[in-house]
Design brief:
about 200 residues, 5-stranded mixed β-sheet, 7 strands, globular
Amino acid sequence: MRGPGVPAVIERATFDLEAALEDPDLTAIDLLHPLVRRLIEQVKAGFFAGGAESGRVAYVVTPDVGEVTALAQVIARYAYTLGGETTNMELLIPIAASLAGRVVCWGRDARPLLAPALRLTSEQVPLADVRADGAEFLGSPRLEALVKDVIELQRQELEAEYQQFARHYAGADGMKPLIHLETRSSDLLTVTMLYPQV
């Protein structure tokens, strides 16, 4: 993974952005870190080279779902304008849905279905079933609309949160009104099929 902005060794790293802000010796590993960007690009390159289900569909068996559920990880890109300056941001949004493309939950509400919160079992599912279910989900005519709807809901939530923050700190030095928040693009990165425990 060596490359521009990625040293041979990262001595001290964390996924906790608050911890990195408090300790200048910690390197924050987030979606904007060059290492993560390179990993995402490699996953995407492998996906497009290998076909629809190649390299991005996994499965687990868990008592935390009552039906077969697809947990998609979508990266959404937004741009917002503050005081005439445009800034880009990326968010990783988990979306849990039925095979037919009905949303079960997304964003914060999907956190219980993410590791390490998810309870796992050692049960196995035939790989042919996983492939068939993954293909059904990825081929669902509802999937594109589902992702688009969730990304728009996230955009509205972000905008509302910022507006609340701006109202709370009105008059503080450097605070400028939000002019516009727009969706730029998105990618479906991975899908984990969640199977209920038998």
